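does this look right to u?? heme C version
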Amino acid sequence: MRLAAARNVVPRATVILVAAVMSLLGTACEKSESMPPPQRPATTLSAAAPDEYLPAGAPAKTQAVALNLPKVPPARKPTSSLPKGTSCVTAECHATYQTAAHIHGPVSEKSCNSCHDEDTGTHHFPLKRAKTETCTFCHPVNNTQAHQHAPLKTAQACMTCHDPHVSQAKFLLKADNVEQLCQKCHDTPLRKFAHDPFAKGQCTLCHEPHQSANAKLLRGGEGNQHCFSCHGAMKVQFASATIVHKPAGESCVTCHSPHSTDNSHQLKSPVDQTCLKGCHQKMAEHIASAPDKHDAVKTGMACANCHNPHASNERHLLADRTDRLCLKCHDKPMQTPDGRNLENMKVVLASSSLHGPVRVGNCSACHDAHGGANHALLDKAFPETFYTRFDIRKYELCFQCHDPNMVLAPKTQSLTNFRNGDKNLHFVHVNRDDKGRTCKTCHEMHGSDLPNHMASGVPFEGSKWAMPIDYQKTQTGGSCTPGCHKTKTYDRGSAPTLILPTTRGAS
Ligand code: HEC
Ligand code: HEC
Ligand code: HEC
Ligand code: HEC
Ligand code: HEC
Ligand code: HEC
Ligand code: HEC
Ligand code: HEC
Ligand code: HEC
Ligand code: HEC
Ligand code: HEC
Ligand code: HEC
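got this back:
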C-alpha cells in the first residue's frame, strides 16, 4: 500500500482523497493506537560490521531512486490544521519518511502519533513525552547498568546520535557510520599500527553506545576479560602457563593501546622501552652500562626476541629453551659490528661431543644475553686470548662448575685424567706465568666431534692459520702433535676415571 501511495503524483486535493482512502485501509499516519513497544532488537556483534553501514562519502541510495519514483517539489508547510485523516506522508509532504534508506519502524507504519500528540492548531504536533522518554518508552536502553554514556544525559538525549524518523545509515544514525558518529566527539586518530577492529571503524564491536556493566562502556567483560572475548587462544595460554607475567595478568592496556599507536602491535612504547621504562629499571642500567652489547636486545622484537611478554612455561618468561632462542639468529655465520666472524652455532650444536650445559640447551649458563662486562657476552671472567699469565680469577666462568684444584694442584691421582702418572698436565699447561695456555687452546667451548670436545686446531697467535693439534686418545692416556712441539704422549697408567663437575649448572 505504501508503494501505491508513493507512486501517485497527484495534485494536493487528490492527496487528501487518497489519504482518506488509505486511512480506511488502516495505513494512514493518524492511527488511533500507539504501536505496542517492540521487543528490543537483539544487538549482535556482527550487526556492527562496517558493511552494515554506508561507506563514508557514498551518496544515500534511497528507495525512491531504487524504485524509480517520480520526484515532486515539496509542498509548503500548512499553517492550520488539516482535515482529519489526512496522511502526513506523501510524495510532497515528509516524502523521505517513505523513501529513505532506513526508516524507523513506527514511521514506516506512519504511526506518527506513537510519539507526536494532536495538532495544536498551527500544524504543530508536540511530543507526547519528554525527549528521552519518547524513545525509552519503546527502547529501554538506559539507566539499567552501572556505566551510562554521557550524551544520553544531555538535552538532545537520544537525538544526539539518532534521527527519530529516517537516516541514510543503519541504526538511524546522524552520521554515515558509527566511526564518524563517535569521532564527532572523540579524537581517536588512526596511527601507523592500528588494532584490526579499530582500523575498520568498528567502535561498537568493543563499546556499547548507550550503557554497560563494564567501565569504558566495554562489551564482553571488564579489563582483560574484554580482550579475551576475542583473543580466546590467549585466554587459554594464560590459564595453562606456569608463569604469567604480572602486568599482563592485571591489565593488557598497560602496554597495548586498544586503538592505535605508532609502534607495532599497538604497543604504547617500542618493545624495549615497554619493558625497561618504569619496570625493569635494573635491567635498563645493566644494558646501558654493559661494555659488551648484544644486538638481539635492540633489533627485531627486542626483548620479545627471547621473552614472552605475556605468559610462559619457561623460567624468566623465556619464550623457549635458550638454545632454540639463540638459534633463531645464530643459525648462520654472522658478523659483529667490529668485523669479527661468528660461528654458525647450528653447525656447532650438531657435533657429537657437546659440553654438558650446551647439551641440555642452557646457553645462559655462560652467556648473559643482555650484555655484560666480559667478551662474548660471558657472564663471568674468561680469557679472551689463547695464552695468558695464570691467575685463577681469569677462569671464574669454568670454575663455577668445575673444581679449580684441577689447575692448582701440580700432582694428582684423581683431579683430572689429563696427567702423566700423577703429573697434572692441566696444571702444566694452564698454570704458568709465561704463556699459560687457556682452556680454549685445547677444548672447544660448545662442542666438537672429538672426545672431551677437544679442539682440532689452535689458531697460531696473530694469524688465521689453525695449527692442527691431532689429539689421539688411548686407553690410559693420549697424545697430540700440535704445531708448537713434536708428538707428546701422556700415560696415567690407568683407565680414565669419571670426573664430574662440582656443579652441573643445569637450568
Ligand atoms: C519515534 C518517535 C517519533 C515518531 C514515530 C515520529 N516522530 Fe516526528 N519527531 C520526533 C521527535 C523526537 C522530534 C523532535 C526532533 C528533535 O528535536 O530533534 C520530531 C520532530 C518532527 C518534526 C519536526 C522537524 C524535524 O524533523 O525535527 C516533524 C515534521 C515530524 N517530527 C514529523 C513526523 C511525522 C510526519 C511522523 C509520522 C510519519 C513522525 N514525525 C513520527 C519523534 C517521532
Ligand atoms: C512506539 C515504539 C517506538 C518508539 C517510541 C521508538 N521506537 Fe525505535 N523502533 C521501534 C521499532 C518497531 C523498531 C524496529 C525494530 C526492528 O526492526 O526490530 C525500532 C527501531 C529502532 C532503531 C534501530 C533501527 C535500525 O536501523 O535497526 C533505532 C536506532 C531506534 N528505533 C531508535 C529510536 C529512537 C532514537 C527513538 C526515540 C526518538 C525511538 N526509537 C522510539 C519502535 C519504537
Ligand atoms: C552516543 C551516540 C548514541 C546515543 C546518545 C544513543 N545511541 Fe542508540 N545507538 C548508537 C549506535 C552507534 C548504535 C548502533 C549500535 C551498534 O553498532 O551495535 C545504536 C543503536 C541503537 C538501537 C538499536 C540497537 C539496540 O541496541 O537495540 C536502539 C534501539 C537505540 N540505539 C536506541 C537509543 C535510545 C533509545 C537512545 C536514548 C536513550 C539512544 N539510542 C542514544 C548510538 C547512540
Ligand atoms: C555527542 C558527543 C559524543 C558522541 C557522538 C560520542 N560520545 Fe562517547 N563520550 C562523550 C562524552 C562527553 C563522554 C564523557 C567523557 C569524559 O567523561 O571524559 C564520553 C565517554 C565515552 C567513553 C568513556 C566512558 C567511560 O566510562 O570512561 C567511551 C568508551 C565512549 N565515550 C565511546 C564512544 C563511542 C564508541 C561513540 C560512538 C558510538 C561515542 N562515544 C560517541 C561524548 C560523545
Ligand atoms: C578492540 C576494542 C576497541 C575498539 C575497536 C575501540 N575501542 Fe575504544 N576503548 C577500548 C578499550 C579496552 C578502552 C579502555 C582503555 C583503557 O582502559 O585504558 C577504550 C577506551 C575508549 C575511550 C575512553 C577514553 C580512554 O582512552 O580511556 C573512548 C572515548 C573510546 N575508547 C572511543 C573509541 C572509538 C571512537 C572507537 C572507534 C573509532 C573505539 N573506541 C574503538 C577498546 C576498543
Ligand atoms: C572485538 C574483537 C577484539 C577485541 C575485543 C580485542 N581484539 Fe585484539 N585483535 C582483534 C583482531 C580481529 C585482530 C587481528 C587479527 C589477528 O592478528 O589475530 C587483533 C589483533 C591484536 C593484536 C596484534 C596486532 C598485531 O599487530 O599483530 C594485539 C596486540 C591485540 N589484538 C591486543 C588486544 C588487546 C590488548 C585487547 C583488549 C584491550 C584486544 N586486543 C581486544 C580483535 C579483538
Ligand atoms: C608487559 C607488557 C604487555 C602486556 C601487559 C600485554 N602485552 Fe601483549 N604484547 C606485548 C609485546 C611486547 C608484544 C609484541 C611481542 C610479541 O609478539 O610477543 C605483544 C604482542 C601481543 C599480541 C600479538 C602477538 C601475539 O602474541 O599474538 C597480542 C594479540 C597481545 N599482545 C595481546 C595481549 C593481551 C590480550 C594482553 C592482556 C591479557 C596483553 N597482550 C598484555 C606486551 C604486553
Ligand atoms: C637474546 C635473548 C634475550 C633477549 C633479547 C632479552 N633477554 Fe632477558 N633473559 C634472557 C635469558 C636467557 C634470561 C635468563 C637468564 C638466566 O638464566 O639467568 C633472561 C632473564 C631476564 C630477566 C630476569 C633475570 C634478571 O637478570 O633480572 C629479566 C628481568 C629480563 N631478562 C629482561 C629483559 C629485558 C627487559 C629485555 C629487553 C631489553 C631482555 N630481557 C632481552 C634472554 C634474553
Ligand atoms: C635476534 C637475533 C639474535 C638472537 C635471538 C640471539 N643473538 Fe646473539 N647475536 C646477534 C647478533 C646480530 C650478533 C652480532 C652483533 C653483536 O655482537 O651484538 C650476536 C652476537 C652474539 C655473540 C658474540 C658477541 C661478541 O661480541 O663476541 C654471542 C656470544 C651471542 N650473540 C650469544 C647469543 C646467545 C647465547 C643467544 C641466546 C640466549 C643469542 N645470542 C641470541 C643476534 C642474536
Ligand atoms: C660453558 C660455557 C658456555 C656455554 C654453556 C655456551 N657458551 Fe657460547 N661461548 C662460551 C665461551 C667461553 C665463548 C667465547 C670463546 C672465545 O673466547 O673465543 C663463547 C662464544 C660464543 C659465541 C661467539 C662465537 C664466535 O665465533 O666467536 C656464540 C655465538 C655463542 N657462544 C653462542 C652460544 C650458544 C647459542 C650457546 C647455547 C647453545 C652457548 N653459546 C653456550 C661459553 C659457553
Ligand atoms: C654451568 C656449569 C659449567 C660451566 C660454567 C662449565 N662447565 Fe664444563 N662441564 C659441565 C658439565 C655438566 C660437564 C659434564 C658433561 C657430561 O656429563 O658429559 C662438563 C664437562 C666439561 C669437559 C669434559 C667433557 C667430557 O667429555 O668429559 C670439559 C673439557 C669442560 N667441561 C670444559 C669447560 C670449560 C673450559 C669451561 C669454561 C669455559 C667449562 N667447562 C665451564 C658444566 C660446566
Ligand atoms: C693443553 C691442552 C689442554 C688445556 C689447555 C686444557 N685442557 Fe682440559 N683436557 C685436556 C685433555 C687432553 C683432556 C682429556 C684427558 C683424558 O681424558 O685423557 C682434558 C680433560 C678435561 C676435562 C674432563 C675431566 C678431566 O679433567 O679429565 C675437563 C673438565 C677439562 N679438561 C677442563 C679444562 C679447563 C677448565 C681448562 C682451562 C682452565 C682446560 N681443561 C685446559 C687438555 C687440555
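The two ends are 81 Å apart (CA to CA). idk if thats expected tbh
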